[in-house]
TrEMBL record, chain A:
Subcellular location: Endoplasmic reticulum membrane
Pfam families, per database record: DPM3
Signal sequence, start to end: none
Natural source organism: Exidia glandulosa HHB12029
Protein name (database record): Dolichol-phosphate mannosyltransferase subunit 3
A GO CC term attached to the entry: endoplasmic reticulum membrane
Pathway the protein contributes to: Protein modification; protein glycosylation
Assembly and interaction partners: Component of the dolichol-phosphate mannose (DPM) synthase complex.
Native organism taxonomy: Eukaryota, Fungi, Dikarya, Basidiomycota, Agaricomycotina
Membrane topology reported for the UniProt record: Multi-pass membrane protein
UniProt keyword annotation of Metal-binding present: no
Keyword Endoplasmic reticulum on entry: yes
TrEMBL record, chain B:
Topology in membrane: Multi-pass membrane protein
Organism: Exidia glandulosa HHB12029
GO CC annotation: dolichol-phosphate-mannose synthase complex; endoplasmic reticulum membrane
Name of the molecule in the record: Dolichol phosphate-mannose biosynthesis regulatory protein
Family under the similarity heading: Belongs to the DPM2 family.
Quaternary organization: Component of the dolichol-phosphate mannose (DPM) synthase complex.
Length: 132, 79
């Protein structure tokens, strides 16, 4: 079963149950015991039993709670995601390195080669050789 | 960047929690309380619990529709 099928079948079942209870004339005891169901009338105002003030709350409540859940998710993500400063530093160094002029004076290129060789000799070569 | 990410995120979190708690008590808890309870003075009359989300939904949908229509007009004019 696809996810769309499961979603729409669950939605259909829940709305069917909701509409079944919507028009049912339950005795007052059950209307309080059954979990809070779109109180179709205020229970303590007996005058309203005649005129059906259907403040249909549950669909609107699901909409409002979905909106607040979405906002909560956004806020939580903004709070908890790290800024990664080390990745930022590495990236800026990389960008600066790439931005250096393509054709440079011969001497500067030789200087860069010497620096690479120095880095190699100081840090990589001792790890390749095995004497301690 | 005037407001930091964390401040904005925590503000959104707070607003979302407050809205959810207030609306849940308003719509689902209050009808079960007797009318002489002192809690009722903090909430608007309950028909507004339906009207306010309906208004917001209407305004939101019309804003989305207006935006889509302006984009389409601009695209049509470009050609």
């Amino acid at each position: 079963m696809t996810r769309a099928t499961t979603f729409f079948s669950a939605f259909g079942i829940l709305s069917g149950i909701y509409f079944a209870f919507f028009n049912a004339d339950l005795p007052e005891k059950f209307q309080l015991i059954i979990p809070v169901f779109a109180p179709a009338r205020d229970f303590y105002n007996s005058a309203q039993h005649r005129t059906v003030h259907r403040y249909v709350q549950l669909p609107w409540w699901t909409l409002v709670s979905f909106g607040s859940y979405a906002l909560w998710t956004l806020g939580w993500a903004m709070l908890s995601i790290r800024e990664c400063p080390e990745a930022y530093d590495e990236l800026t160094k990389f960008v600066a390195f790439k931005k250096r002029p393509a054709c440079i004076w011969h001497s500067q290129r030789e200087l860069e080669d010497l620096l690479h060789i120095q880095h190699f000799v100081r840090q990589i070569l001792p790890e390749l050789t095995f004497h301690r | 960047q005037a407001v930091s990410d964390k401040a904005l995120g925590s503000l959104m979190l707070l607003v979302a929690s407050v809205v959810f708690v207030y609306y849940t008590t308003w719509a689902l808890v209050l009808p079960f309380l007797p009318p002489d309870n002192a809690v009722h003075q903090y909430f608007l009359p309950r028909e507004w619990a339906v009207r306010i989300p309906a208004l917001i939904l209407l305004l939101g949908l019309s804003a989305v529709g207006a935006f889509v229509s302006t984009v389409m007009i601009r695209e049509g004019r470009k050609r």
